[in-house]
């Protein structure tokens, strides 16, 4: 099933394999791909995947998480165009596929270099202190749809096949979803808290020609107790009441692919990327997290059949990856399967599988040392199977 073709909005996607956005924090300061970024994406092109979902790309300089976050601009457009053209050529020659490239558009909000927060949040502020001066004004938020549109137009010029208006992992749009106590046009009621997200989606949709995909990556629940998180009860249990209202509206607004994710990796990383190894001690068993993903994805797929659902969190499965992916497709849990850490560790896993050469020894260990590199403000990649990042990891250990 993984290798079945999918048709979305008239676009043909060669198979159901999605390489999830994986930020490398390795772009040049102007936001263009560096040698390391190019190396990573050329590997993605060789993988045979139907979709390469590019990492978080800031729509404005103040919304970057770090000075090396990807940021497509008019002045570096040609570098993106060259990269995409090279990727297409490689994918065609080496895998016989024409992959779909999606660019993830983001504003990092609380995780920006200077935090830009939606409201004071006692749970998150234990880790990164802020003051009222970090709260973004309504007037600032009003300017963002224009910035998303400008980035989406550039993405089209660069040759992307779709854009993702991202709302996940605690970044600005996601944080606004739980701005219950914020005053003004962007806080309080459900309509206000979702206003900016939908304004950006509508504005971007208007400039996308037919055949270009409109997508979103959504943290369906932050798994942080209400009122500090979205999609939960006051005691932090999953509550899909508001996520259902949100997703219904996303479907009405013309979102074609919903890339499902959960949690906030700065606060509860085990929710978003179940751990098998490593120093982090998760407060829940990995099975619980894996089952939560499946429950949410199946719920959405059944309730909103017009959406193409991409599943997440499967790198944990290691040698059982393909079997588990096929099972999820067969059982109607998702329509396409997304791989994050696995493709950093073992970019050729899918092509090797097709050739009967899948090698369990090359599979991701689900240790998240790659995340540790990011948190240590280094460039990020697989610190287990790639010598360059392994050496960097040794340095941060020292
Ligand atoms: C180093 C690293 C960078 C990531 N960068 C992004 C990103 O730019 N955008 C995003 O939506 N998710 C990002 N994620 C989350 C992954 O896309 C994925 O959802 C997560 O790793 C769980 O899937 P997995 O179990 O297959 O790894 C990142 C995760 C890691 C470990
Ligand atoms: S460091 Fe490598 S093996 Fe460990 S989780 Fe990241 S990609 Fe997987």
Task: Summarize the SSE layout with pairings.
Elements: E1 6-8, E2 11-13, E3 17-19, H1 35-46, E4 51-58, H2 77-95, E5 100-106, H3 122-125, H4 138-142, H5 144-158, E6 162-165, H6 172-176, H7 190-207, E7 213-219, H8 241-252, E8 257-261, H9 269-272, H10 286-303, E9 308-311, H11 321-330, E10 336-339, H12 341-345, H13 349-354, H14 369-375, H15 387-397
Parallel strand pairs: 3-4, 3-10, 4-5, 5-6, 6-7, 7-8, 8-9, 9-10
Antiparallel strand pairs: 1-2
Helix pairs in contact: 1-2, 2-5, 5-7, 14-15
The structure holds flavin mononucleotide (FMN) and iron/sulfur cluster (SF4).
Residues 341, 344-345, 364-370, 382-385 line the site of iron/sulfur cluster (SF4).
Structural features, described:
The protein is an alpha/beta fold and 398 residues long. It has 2 domains: 6-357, Aldolase class I (TIM Barrel, Alpha-Beta Barrel); 368-398, no CATH class. Helices cover 38% and strands 12% of the residues. It contains 15 helices and 10 strands. The chain has an 8-stranded parallel β-barrel with strand order 3-4-5-6-7-8-9-10, surrounded by 4 helices. The protein has a two-stranded antiparallel ribbon with strand order 1-2. Strand 7, helix 8 (241-252) and strand 8 form a beta-alpha-beta unit. The longest helix has 19 residues, at 77-95. The mean pLDDT is 97. Iron/sulfur cluster binds at residues 341, 344-345, 364-370, 382-385.
């Amino acid at each position: 099933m993984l290798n079945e073709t999918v048709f979305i909005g008239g676009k043909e996607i060669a198979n159901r394999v999605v390489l999830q956005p994986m930020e490398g924090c390795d772009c040049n300061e102007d936001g263009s791909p560096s040698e390391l970024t190019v190396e990573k994406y050329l590997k993605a092109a060789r993988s045979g995947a139907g979709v390469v979902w590019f990492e978080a790309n800031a729509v404005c300089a103040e919304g970057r998480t770090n000075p090396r976050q990807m940021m497509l601009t008019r002045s570096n457009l040609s570098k993106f165009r060259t990269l995409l053209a090279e990727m297409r050529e490689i994918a065609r020659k080496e895998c016989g596929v024409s992959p779909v490239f999606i660019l993830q558009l983001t504003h990092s909000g609380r995780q920006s270099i200077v935090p830009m927060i939606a409201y004071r949040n006692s749970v998150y502020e234990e880790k990164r202190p802020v003051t009222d001066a970090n709260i973004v004004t309504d007037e600032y938020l009003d300017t963002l749809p224009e910035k998303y549109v400008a980035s989406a137009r550039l993405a089209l010029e660069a040759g992307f096949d779709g854009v993702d208006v991202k709302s996940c992992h605690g970044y600005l749009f996601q944080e606004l979803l739980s701005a219950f106590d914020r005053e003004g046009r962007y806080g309080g009621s459900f309509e206000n808290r979702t206003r900016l997200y939908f304004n950006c989606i509508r504005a971007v949709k208007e400039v996308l020609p037919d055949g270009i995909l409109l997508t979103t990556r959504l943290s369906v629940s932050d798994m942080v107790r209400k009122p500090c998180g979205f999609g939960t009860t006051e005691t932090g249990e999953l509550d899909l009441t508001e996520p259902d209202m949100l997703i219904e509206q996303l479907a009405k607004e013309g979102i074609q692919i919903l890339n499902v994710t959960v949690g906030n990796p700065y606060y509860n990383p085990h929710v978003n990327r179940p751990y098998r190894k490593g120093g982090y001690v998760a407060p829940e068993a990995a099975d619980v997290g894996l089952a939560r993903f499946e429950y949410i994805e199946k719920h959405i797929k059944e309730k909103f059949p017009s959406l193409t659902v991409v599943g997440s969190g499967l790198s944990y499965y290691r040698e059982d990856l393909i079997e588990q992916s096929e099972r999820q497709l067969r059982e109607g849990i998702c329509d396409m399967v997304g791989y994050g850490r696995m493709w950093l560790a073992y970019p050729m896993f899918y092509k090797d599988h097709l050739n009967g050469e899948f090698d369990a020894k090359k599979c991701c260990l689900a240790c998240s040392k790659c995340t540790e590199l990011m948190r240590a403000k280094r460039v990020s990649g697989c610190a287990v199977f790639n010598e360059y990042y392994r050496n960097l990891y040794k340095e941060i250990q020292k």
